[in-house]
Every structure is written in C-alpha cells, then in structure tokens.
Amino acid sequence: MKKITVKASARTLLIAMTASAVYSGASYADATLDRILSTKTLKCGVQLDFPPAGYRTANGEIDGYDVAYCKDMAKALGVNAEIVETASPDRIPALVSNRIDISIASASITPARALTVAFSQPYVSYSNVVLTRKDSGIEKFDDLKGKKVGGVNGTTTEQQLRQIYKSQNWASAGGDFITYNSEPESYLALTQGKIDGLMLNNATAAALVQSGQFPTLAIKGQAPVPVDLTGMAVRKADTDLLRWVQVFVWDQVKSGRYAELYTKYFNSTDIPSLSVPGVDF
Question: Would you indicate the residue range of the signal peptide (predicted)?
C-alpha cells in the first residue's frame, strides 16, 4: 500500500507541476497586454531616422507612418502611446529586453528574426532603389560593381546587397563593402564620398532627396531584390498581444486607414498590396 501511495503521490505531484507550468506560461503570455491596459501606456519602438516611417519635423516633433500606427494602436486600446526611439540594430534587443512592448520599425519579416520574435502580418511594403551622389557616375544598379558600397549593419537591405556583392564578385572589380551602425551614418558617409552608393527603400530615399538636406544625392534605378514586406514584432511569449495586433492590422486595411496613412506619408495613391500572391499569412 505504501508503494501505491508513493506512486500516486508522485503522479499527483507531476500533474500539479504540469498544470502550474501551463498556467504560468499562460499568465506570462497575457502579462504584456494586461500591463498595457492597466498602466494605460503602450511603448512602441520606432526608428526616428527613417523617413517617412519615423522622423522629427523641423520643429522637433515626432512624426511618421510608424508613429501614426503606434498612436492608432494606442487609441484602439484606450491607452496612451509612448514612442521609444530605437535604432535599426537595436530593434530586436529593445524588445527582448522589455524596454518596449512592440516594435513598429519597418522590420523585414525573415525566418532568422522569427526565431527570436513573433511577427504580425505585413503592415507596410517597400521596394528598393539605388541612392548615390549626382557626381558618382552611377546611373543604374549594375554600375555599383567596382564601387564602394555600404549598408546599415543587420538590416535586410545590407544583407541583400552584401550577398549580391559576394556572389557577383564585385571586389574583383575594385569594389569595397562598408557597414555602419545607423542610417544617418550611412547617409553622411555617402555625402562625404566615403562610399558611392546605398541600396535603400524607395520611400526613405525619396524623402531624403526631397528634404533639401542632401542636395548632392540622387536616386538611380531600382534594385533587383524582392518587394520588402515588413511587420510589427512582439516577444514570442506575448501571444495575446500578437493576436490583438493581427486583428488591428486587418482592421486598418479594412477600414481604409492603411490607405489614408500611406497616401499621407508616402505621398502616393498607388497603395501597395500587403500580401504575397497565393500566401495567407
């Protein structure tokens, strides 16, 4: 009888431990959304050196497509929006270290990043172009071969350009590849002649050229890479928040708000699709 009692006790303990683990996991998953609602604050990680997604106006005010999305999200939740400036290489670290609740920072959805964070479906789409100086002699993407090119460390455009640089052996033609830690560093390097070209999304490149702050820069052709669909990111354990964000993005498109914000910030009525044909994210 004693042996049976021990076995039963062990089985009871195992069941209790399993239930506790499941409950704890569920509680952790619910924690972020519950805290956002209880504290009345949504902390959004946004790049503010990446117009038109995020930037500061001439008056020092924070604005941009991603900023507007954060504010819309906070309004839908009935809370206040707190914009946390987050540099490109810090987008995922800021999230996993709990400095922000959600990253709304034009992050490309990739399998590698999805090992660390959970993505919403796409909320904005970009194509990529060549940004160079007017006096560089570069007129199209292929002219970058043999030139000094660069990118921001860890970004999808940097990785794509590096892959082309290596696969086509641009170094053999005298080329060089240089990485930077932030978008502004790469723009400055380009204007100073430290590099000859960048691969950059079309909207940001256009915003930089039109700003008047970079009078020597020009856009010279499309880059031969796929359209970049970007998503919002949350911590992998925040399943309730992720489900809510997915519904929010769907509602932004359905209500016409996505088209409204895209037209306002990207200065275009040609609203891009947020899906891959034949794929239901």
Answer: 1-29
